[in-house]
Amino acid sequence: MLRIAFPLLFLALISSAPGEPRPNILYLYVDDMGWGAIGPNGQAERKAAGLPHLVTPHLDRLAAEGVNFRRSYGCTVCSPARSSQQSGFHQGHTFADRNDPDNAKKAMRSDELLMGDVLSAAGYVTGYWGKWGFGGSRSQTDPEIVNVQTLPTSHGYRYVVAELHHVRAHTFFQPTLWSAPAAPGAKGGMELIPNSMARWKGKEAYPEEPAWQNHPRYPDTAYCDDVYAFSALEFVRRQALNYRATAQPFFGLLAVQVPHAPFDEIAQLPGWDRDYRALPFWDSLSHQARHWAAMITRIDGHLGNILAALEDPNGDGDPADSVADDTLVIFQSDNGGPQHPAREAFAANGGLKGEKGKIQEGGIRIPTLMRLPANFAADSVLKPGTGTDMTIDVTDLLPTFAELAGVPAPLGIDGVSLAPALLGSGHQRPRQFLIHEARNGQSIIRGEWKLIRANSGLELYHLEKDPGESNDLASAKPGLVEELESLLLGERVAEPVGFANTYHHWVGRDGAMASDASNWSDYKYANDGITYLKDAGAPQVSWTALMENAGSSPAQARADSDLEFLGLEIRGDTHTQTLHVTPGVTLTGRNEIRLSDKSFLVLDGGKVSSLRWVDIAPGGALIGSGTVQGDVYNAGAVAASGKTRPGKLQVQGDYRQMNPSALRVELSEKGNSRLVVEGEAALAGTLEVDLADRFRPAPGSRFTILSAQAVSGVFNHAGNRIAAGDGTRFRIEYSDAQVTLRAE
User: Fold this and answer.
1) For 572-623, what is each residue's pLDDT tens digit?
2) Domains 24-425 and 440-490 share a fold
3) Which residues does 5 contact at the CB level (< 8 Å), separation at least 6?
């Protein structure tokens, strides 16, 4: 019989070597720009037809050099969009699921690992400029920091010029902005600075277009997006040169307020409409439509300056210092366009139903362009100048950035990394469904189907055939409606405002029961004497939990009754941590179960369940006999074994084994342990064979050690031959659906 000690052999398995080049990431994020407001989603056709169209030459270039994601989703309004973007959780799990002014005080938590946290810890230089929306008061003249734990500086962002309160961001001429690095002793590491263009005046290296910062009629208080954009430009120039010299990558997120209302403030800037004056349709437009279009064109000019800085950071005309091919560039909006005449004048929602704040496609489908880093993405099937109907969500960007940076994504988040699809290497994990909330309902999108749970009832649409959501098929497909509604409600979209996942860690001693509430920490989210969220008791499906052994000897825990988590990570420190799942018990990690270094998950006839996957990192091991409901990604070790031979480990999903990793099986007189995969099995890494009780198989005898619906790849053994510990040799034989050992 296999013993728990054997996976110690696998603890030396390590991830990719440190120091490998990593791409820079430049993320350009606008506010309230509808899906149809970019060239490939309708503006190019309008221009060709002589209709009113937006002038965006730099976005047009980005589309020509990048990929247009036609089925990209954000959130319905500002605060949830930024909360989901930064945290990787959809609105059923993130704290901010409404545009509540109090979100500015309470939305992000110290427990959260946001984009800045992850990339800063991975060695990136980080910057954020624009509308942050959390942590400050709304006063125009005398704003204050009201929650330090929700600031960008508390989440890994080093260089910041931002507006902390999303209501205060509803003007473009607020007198002050928050900045970091700050003077010593500044609260939260941020300080107020005058909102002016003075710091850039007279700098010959900075382009005057589109800001005209040296123009005599430029206002004393700056148009805030000009300040954000020039701050980002300064960062990109400096960090691009640093990347060339040191290979230290950078991450910059420019989150402008354009084209959110108010629109007319742009008319205070000199030359605000110069790009449109000569166009024949200009005089026929309303003042609102003119202002709105000019806002977008102005920020397009700023984006052009920043993209040019990637190509020539020091501005000397020599592109030898270019980092353009080393940088992933993303352009995206937070939500669909709001309903107003300016949007209609340019058909900026592209014919989609609904608008900002609504659960229909016009409220949640967003423009998204990505220019891939050519030096990293040579094998990508996503080619410049093309579009894709791959369904993606704003929550996907955090895990994407983490994978590009070579670090794990935060535990149990809802997003799925797009890095394999972008780079053309590795395995693109499937996205099962997308979840969104709005005031008029909630939705789940799975493949081409979209279910809306509205106040008036359930609606079902086939988005490929009916992107305008005009043909409700709910009555024709009751089984599908029931299935999708069950999934939707399981994602906690019906919870009251202020519900969120909570964070817990293991405090139990060696041998303790995982179902006992006293073995887990309680959770409390509080600020300034106000408690916003508390959670205590036994594990539940809203928990993001860590079971870690920080003690001085190996430790074990036992799942003696059914347990549910949103995400569960098991890991050791100096010594190992083991969790046993006993017969008849189900351990659920709805989004993820992660086995990290020095961790063992032992199935003693129990069951592990996830809607997504069990992730086995190098140094982690899944051992035993039982069932895994979900996909298994093995970069550590899997050992099929059992207390009674032969043991069977059954995976009710796909099994993917990566390098470096190992699959171990046991042969005995009574039969052999085996891995049974109901989906596809993709093989790499190594295979190890253990012979029990001095068993000596007869030459030519065969043992099926793995079966699957389909088998691809092979284990890394020269000549497909392997030896057991006592020297008995086997030949590994592969078929379309099985892997067999033949004794030699």
Assistant:
1) 999 999 999 999 999 999 999 999 999 999 999 999 999 999 999 999 999 9
2) no
3) none
For 79, 382, 534, 593, the CA distances from 543, given in Å and listed in that order, are 23, 36, 12, 12
Residue 515, Cβ neighbours under 10 Å: how many?
17
C-alpha–C-alpha distance, residues 635 and 548, integer Å: 19
Please give the backbone phi and psi of residue 482, each rounded to the nearest 5 degrees, phi first: -65, -45
Specify the pLDDT at position 14: 28
CATH code given to domain 24-425: 3.40.720.10
| Residue 513 token pair | 């029961």
pLDDT digits (tens, 9 = 90+) for 408-467: 999 999 999 999 999 999 999 999 999 999 999 999 999 999 999 998 999 999 999 999
pLDDT on residue 645: 57
Alpha-carbon span 379 to 252, nearest angstrom: 25
Closest Cα to residue 76, out of 473, 601, 467, 438?
A: 438
d(CA 206, CA 354): 41
| CB contact at 8 A, 570 and 545 | no
Residue 32's alpha-carbon distances to 104, 293, 357, 634, 710, in angstroms, are: 19, 13, 10, 41, 45
pLDDT tens for 274-315 read: 999 999 999 999 999 999 999 999 999 999 999 999 999 999
Q: Which residues touch 204 (CB under 8 Å, ≥6 apart)? A: none
Q: Bigger pLDDT: 645 or 481?
A: 481
Mean pLDDT of the chain: 94
Is residue 68 helix, strand or coil?
A: strand
pLDDT tens-digit readout, 184-209: 999 999 999 999 999 898 888 899 88
What does the domain layout of the chain look like in residue ranges? Answer: 6-15+496-743, 24-425, 440-490
Cα–Cα distance between 568 and 738 in angstroms, integer? 32
**Sheet arrangement for strand 327-333:** 191-194, 176-180, 159-163, 125-131, 250-255, 24-30, 327-333, 368-371, 67-69, 386-388
Residue 102, helix vs strand vs coil: coil
Domain 440-490 class in CATH = alpha beta
Average of per-residue pLDDT across 639-649? 78
Task: Give the whole-angstrom CA distance, residue 169 versus residue 519.
Answer: 44
The tokens of 587 are what? 């351990």
Q: How far apart are CA 408 and CA 117, in angstroms?
A: 12
Distance CA 78, CA 134 (A): 11
Q: What are the beta bridge partners of residue 544?
A: 503, 567
Query: For residue 628, with 0-12 CB atoms within 10 Å meaning exposed, 13-18 middle and 19 or more buried, which class applies?
Result: buried
Question: Half-sphere exposure of 32 toward its Cβ, with a 13 Å CA cutoff?
Answer: 22
DSSP annotation string for 303-340:
HHHHHHHHH-TT-SS-GGG--GGGEEEEEEESSPPPS-
pLDDT at 4 over 70: no
**47: which residues sit within 8 A by CB, 6+ positions away?**
39, 53
